[in-house]
Amino acid sequence: MRFKDVFSIMGPSMIGPSSSHTAGAARLGLTARQALGGQPDEADIIFSGSFAETYMGHGTDLAVTAGLLGCAPDDERIRDSIALAEAAGMELRFGTELRPGGHPNTVRFELRKGEQALTMVGCSIGGGNVEIVGVDGFDVKFGADCPTLLVNHQDMAGTVAAMALIVGRANLNIRAMDVDRQSRSGRALTVMEMDQAVSAEVRRELQALPQVERVRLIHLNEEEGQE
Amino acid sequence: MRFATLAELSAQCREADMTIGRYMIEEQVRESDQTEETVVGQMASYYQIMKEAVRKGTTEETKSRSGLTGGDAKRVMEYRALGGTALGGEASAALAYALGVSEVNASMGRIIATPTAGSCGIIPGVFVSTQERFGWSDDKMVEALFAAGAIGYVIANQSFISGAEGGCQAEVGSAVGMAAGALTELRGGTPEHAVHAVGLALKNSLGLICDPVGGLVEIPCIVRNGFGAVTALAAADMALAGVRSVIPSDEVIGVMKDIGAAMPEAHRETAKGGLAQTPTGKAILSDLRKKGGRS
């Protein structure tokens, strides 16, 4: 089911004018901020489909930028976010591209913060709900509507079991899981969507696995989700 | 959720001897693993935001950022104060309130997406006006919001709720169906009556394209919210009178999906067709581009 509960239909509480183009866009920006691990110094934001056609009129650019600044979709600062980002020293560039066959409301982020870089592709699927379809070249699919772990690791036998054991021991339930790899025995990304909040301790344990390179947590409703 | 179709929803409600609203509260508690107090509390806070948006939209300045729209809810309020509207006092209140909330949305004010921001006026317009008329408690209204949510949940998963995917039929159409079903239940209809109201309402918006002038959620979105609230009242009255949706409501939802999937991209929120591409629509767009999309 694309829409999981009553509050994916009723709500969110948001600043207008468009749940797809404003609220969903703010949540995509916030997801990208958390996947990067903080506020970007530089952001290329590339819109396609309906986003590319109408982003200015809907304030999609303002909403995405507000998300990168850590604002929720009902934050009154959305209206002034581009000025706020520039004042905070963020370098912003907006563009458009064609993505044949892609979702009509798609945005690609190219973010940089010091040594860290992130490429993320996300779609706004209606009613303020989002779907992330690409992270750093990996094909993924998650809604960012629950605590979500992104674990970069080596493609190696036993890795998924080792990760599942750690979250299971902490009494955390995996709602959905997705594994993608670039090549056999090469780099891989596992996405785990969780029913419960994920503690820093669980993230440290995952990080300590020898085959794990990096652990990130997306948790839009909780400040502790931001690193 | 343990239901995927309106037929399943209504059968499960009958089995449990519950209203759709009450059943959805229990389903949400089960699904989210949160307490009833938490989930009902969140919906109650949403209802307060809806009421505030009605108040703001009908009494304060609501000029949109583009400068294209605003003030229509106040115009209708003033006109109805004179008496003698064709709709009568109650339906014209639903109309004015729905316009007002949509104008608050267009002015970058705070609203609740029900199910989307483009269709955010319809449920508050219907709910707040009928609450005033019938003297219902806030608790009763909040339960009915769960009924609207249950109906929307089925539509969203079986079809679409965004204009970009399925046209305006998916956005305003879904909201009218949700409001009609919830109002039917508020007025004492059974879950079966409510489901018929959904089907009756949805049939009236099948094929409606999404063609926002300048790509903005203003023209024709705001007036379609006003019309949508009135249509929801009509659908609820028909269902309560015993009018049935001969094509079952789940099949109507399927048709909405088929039509949305076949709709050209130009008619799905891209502003490349419909009203957006009329001579006046194009002139407005070119004027907006000169101003960088904002006034």
From TrEMBL, chain A:
CDD domains xrefs: ACT_LSD
All copies of domain ACT, residue ranges: 148-220
Gene3D superfamilies per record: 3.30.70.260, D-3-phosphoglycerate dehydrogenase, domain 3
Molecular function terms from GO: 4 iron, 4 sulfur cluster binding; L-serine ammonia-lyase activity; metal ion binding
UniProt superkingdom: Bacteria
Known catalytic reactions: L-serine = pyruvate + NH4(+)
Record GO biological process: gluconeogenesis
Key words, A-Z: 4Fe-4S, Gluconeogenesis, Iron, Iron-sulfur, Lyase, Metal-binding
InterPro entries, A to Z: ACT-like_dom_sf (IPR045865), ACT_dom (IPR002912), ASB_dom_sf (IPR029009), Fe-S_L-Ser (IPR051318), Fe-S_L-Ser_bsu (IPR004643), Ser_deHydtase_bsu (IPR005131)
Annotated metabolic or biological route of this protein: Carbohydrate biosynthesis; gluconeogenesis
SUPFAM superfamilies per the UniProt record, alphabetical: ACT-like, Serine metabolism enzymes domain
Cofactor(s), names only, from the UniProt record: [4Fe-4S] cluster
Name of one Pfam family that matches: SDH_beta
Family statement drawn from the similarity comment of this UniProt entry: Belongs to the iron-sulfur dependent L-serine dehydratase family.
Protein name per UniProt: L-serine deaminase
Protein source organism: Cohnella ginsengisoli
From TrEMBL, chain B:
Pfam families assigned to the protein according to its UniProt record, in alphabetical order: SDH_alpha (PF03313)
InterPro entries with a match to the protein in the record: Fe-S_L-Ser (IPR051318), Ser_deHydtase-like_asu (IPR005130), Ser_deHydtase_asu (IPR004642)
Molecular function GO labels: 4 iron, 4 sulfur cluster binding; L-serine ammonia-lyase activity; metal ion binding
GO biological process: gluconeogenesis
Enzyme Commission number, as recorded: 4.3.1.17
Required co-factors: [4Fe-4S] cluster
Keyword field contains 4Fe-4S: yes
Reactions accelerated catalytically: L-serine = pyruvate + NH4(+)
Pathway involvement of the protein, from the record: Carbohydrate biosynthesis; gluconeogenesis
Keywords: 4Fe-4S, Gluconeogenesis, Iron, Iron-sulfur, Lyase, Metal-binding
Residue span(s) of domain Serine dehydratase-like alpha subunit: 16-276
Family: Belongs to the iron-sulfur dependent L-serine dehydratase family.
Name of the protein in question: L-serine dehydratase
Organism, scientific name: Cohnella ginsengisoli
Gene designation per UniProt: sdaAA
